Amino acid sequence: xxxxxxxxxxxxxxxxxxxxxxxxxxxxxxxxxxxxxxxxxxxxxxxxxxxxxxxxxxxxxxxxxxxxxxxxxxxxxxxxxxxxxxxxxxxxxxxxxxxxxxxxxxxxxxxxxxxxxxxxxxxxxxxxxxxxxxxxxxxxxxxxxxxxxxxxxxxxxxxxxxxxxxxxxxxxxxxxxxxxxxxxxxxxxxxxxxxxxxxxxxxxxxxxxxxxxxxxxxxxxxxxxxxxxxxxxxxxxxxxxxxxxxxxxxxxxxxxxxxxxxxxxxxxxxxxxxxxxxxxxxxxxxxxxxxxxxxxxxxxxxxxxxxxxxxxxxxxxxxxxxxxxxxxxxxxxxxxxxxxxxxxxxxxxxxxxxxxxxxxxxxxxxxxxxxxxxxxxxxxxxxxxxxxxxxxxxxxxxxxxxxxxxxxxxxxxxxxxxxxxxxxxxxxxxxxxxxxxxxxxxxxxxxxxxxxxxxxxxxxxxxxxxxxxxxxxxxxxxxxxxxxxxxxxxxxxxxxxxxxxxxxxxxxxxxxxxxxxxxxxxxxxxxxxxxxxxxxxxxxxxxxxxxxxxxxxxxxxxxxxxxxxxxxxxxxxxxxxxxxxxxxxxxxxxxxxxxxxxxxxxxxxxxxxxxxxxxxxxxxxxxxxxxxxxxxxxxxxxxxxxxxxxxxxxxxxxxxxxxxxxxxxxxxxxxxxxxxxxxxxxxxxxxxxxxxxxxxxxxxxxxxxxxxxxxxxxxxxxxxxxxxxxxxxxxxxxxxxxxxxxxxxxxxxxxxxxxxxxxxxxxxxxxxxxxxxxxxxxxxxxxxxxxxxxxxxxxxxxxxxxxxxxxxxxxxxxxxxxxxxxxxxxxxxxxxxxxxxxxxxxxxxxxxxxxxxxxxxxxxxxxxxxxxxxxxxxxxxxxxxxxxxxxxxxxxxxxxxxxxxxxxxxxxxxxxxxxxxxxxxxxxxxxxxxxxxxxxxxxxxxxxxxxxxxxxxxxxxxxxxxxxxxxx
Length: 968
Ligand SMILES: *[C@@H]1O[C@H](CO)[C@@H](O)[C@H](O)[C@H]1NC(C)=O
Ligand SMILES: *[C@@H]1O[C@H](CO)[C@@H](O)[C@H](O)[C@H]1NC(C)=O
Ligand SMILES: *[C@@H]1O[C@H](CO)[C@@H](O)[C@H](O)[C@H]1NC(C)=O
Ligand SMILES: [Zn+2]
Fold this sequence. Notes:
This protein has 17 helices and 43 strands. By secondary structure, the protein is α+β, with helices and mostly antiparallel strands.
């Protein structure tokens, strides 16, 4: 809690301590480094060159927690210890300078590095400088692509790549992005990787039909044009599909965890097998060459947590190379070499071919006809929401470290900075973290790490306040901090026991408020924790990148007045000045939605259903629904209830229709007085399983919109892609799962439209969804399953907790807007930003000191509506990392899809900007030093900015700057 001596501003600033990166400074290498493309082994032009890539795939948490994996703890769950892998690999690399190894996950490498002696660190630097140990990807983790938000992905990449640059200089900069395991691939990830300066991208998993076609057509390597808005080649990324997932070819796994025969090369012994090994290898190599375009092929020699005893692998690989290449003297035209993905990429580039272009993405991913990996789009909905609000909180925490200046480093609250939350968020982006595909104890660990990160940003204050202060006090103030670069208006809802309050804003003006009884659904969710009987509702406004303080005093105690209680019936309509919704009096369901400004109306109903999860007992396939896979037993979902019991609450702040469908499904349809969006707050759980049926619960909107089999989903919260039912843009789909095969990740929004109307749903977390019938949009909310889906996690997705032993209850919001298609983005872009970066509300008890500054903005002026302030983060003592983003797509909005200009010197109100340098998206390269391999597409000439301070942004462009600043 704040002490009265501090004004809210100082108080907020003191909450957050600035961080200084404590990584060791890189020593100048003794000799001039020959890393990168220069360090590649020579290849033989007339031969088939086989690039052997020794690698390990180290999940940043999955069956074990990230720390258990690092130390090799709990080997009873899975034998895996990353510290031993790095020890052993370094040792083996030193034994033969030809050997190569790539390392991917900086979360692990960083842990290992901290524990090494100076001598060992220098040895490793030498290996890196000589290209013998090469970093690929290099983010803190290998992020999930379906359920992550771009802002958190950029942050985790920035953190990992910064560590590599700080530690190894330019030889530590990965040239290749490497997502060998994620379960489908997002176009926005490819766009980000291109803007981060990667020359190429390799992955392992794509739809089996797509792969088969690409093998035949030799189109497993392509140029991905990953943005419809950014000028090529800005978001162009060379993309390659690996031949065997990320595993070695069959019969050639020489890890201690494998059973393949070693190379027995003593001709005096009976079991000599060199001829056999060489023959088998040549056969595989020739077969692989048939499905790729050049005389270079790649083989991934490694797999999950391999190389713990690297001697086994390297000893056999040394021999394989020797014996296969010896055959060249007998006329063999196969040349095997130690290589890395970037060395392989260099050869593809030298081949100077024209590669096929790819414009859509790689979702959904199916590895067989009934095995669509579309369940994880929704798995663990509570963790997905916690991850999303943790990102919001982290961005605020980082902003306050900057705005607070040096004073924020001397707070009274002891330790505290954003570093812990940054790391927790980075780990949570892993493809078995926010994806929901980890074991339960690992999910708990991710949540615990996030909570610890919040604590370091001092957030418990907020919760403690929420539960105690506002309920108990007669006088308190509410501080609303807005992390967006434009003013926001936000509804506040506080648990209280009083029945009337007086609220005044920062200027002393009275604010309208209402006290309403806590709904039964909310009381039930609390499970006996929290006793407030009422909720205090009012609307707050906060300036850009700043706060506003409201003071609240209790006027009256006792039970709420009867007028404040809900009425037990459906209203005919609910409306404010923007929207009108009607309800069917018979069923209590929504029946229409109108936009009063544009005078458009659509028929719209909404209800909840569940799919019966397949238990594997099925004539077509034994595949069950599980953490990864969605496989309903039938294509017709069960309705939970055809009618809803209704209560209506209408007052000057909000109008609510509370719908009760069953003991485990309820919803509030809510319209705030000055909102352009209709809020559907759903509450689902505990999902009953007493009938031994796994359930996948959806909310489905059915409208009169003529959507013609098409709907739209965002990619990682940024650009939107069109989805067509039973169709893939790049191959002729044979649809085998009519529901699961039409599901796509919805990260922040989805919409359906026709010529006149666009209905957009903004979500508060990542979810899966589809449009199975015209005019319909369904979104999966919660999943409770009884079987494991045999993709490794080894547990059914059946979440319970101490507070919810009978099954997790999840609550969330969908925000609906209706607009003409040409102006829809003008509503859903800002709306989604408000959900992603929501205001931070803190409390102070008692009266504020009269000299307290009640309102503050860190900006000199509101930024243009098209500009999003993506990053404001302290970098070093005197530097701040700034990312400005144009948040509209090209031709998405008549008004906003235009270039805009921002003046960096006129940005902040508390900082003088003394200098500026532009960087790549991941901030590990200066923009003017950024050269990428050019895949036969000329780089556009940079126009040169009118002045260094005037920064122009085109649609969907993100520009990253390092500002040298001085506190005013
Ligand atoms: C690449 O191919 C083009 C023809 O498509 C040719 O004009 C060019 O010289 C080639 N470049 C190299 C480096 O071989
Ligand atoms: C609020 O009211 C509830 C119900 O009357 C009661 O149990 C609780 O103790 C009250 N809290 C306070 C702080 O008065
Ligand atoms: C990378 O690190 C080197 C020092 O090792 C530093 O000189 C350089 O400025 C860093 N690059 C970026 C983009 O921060
Ligand atoms: Zn993995």
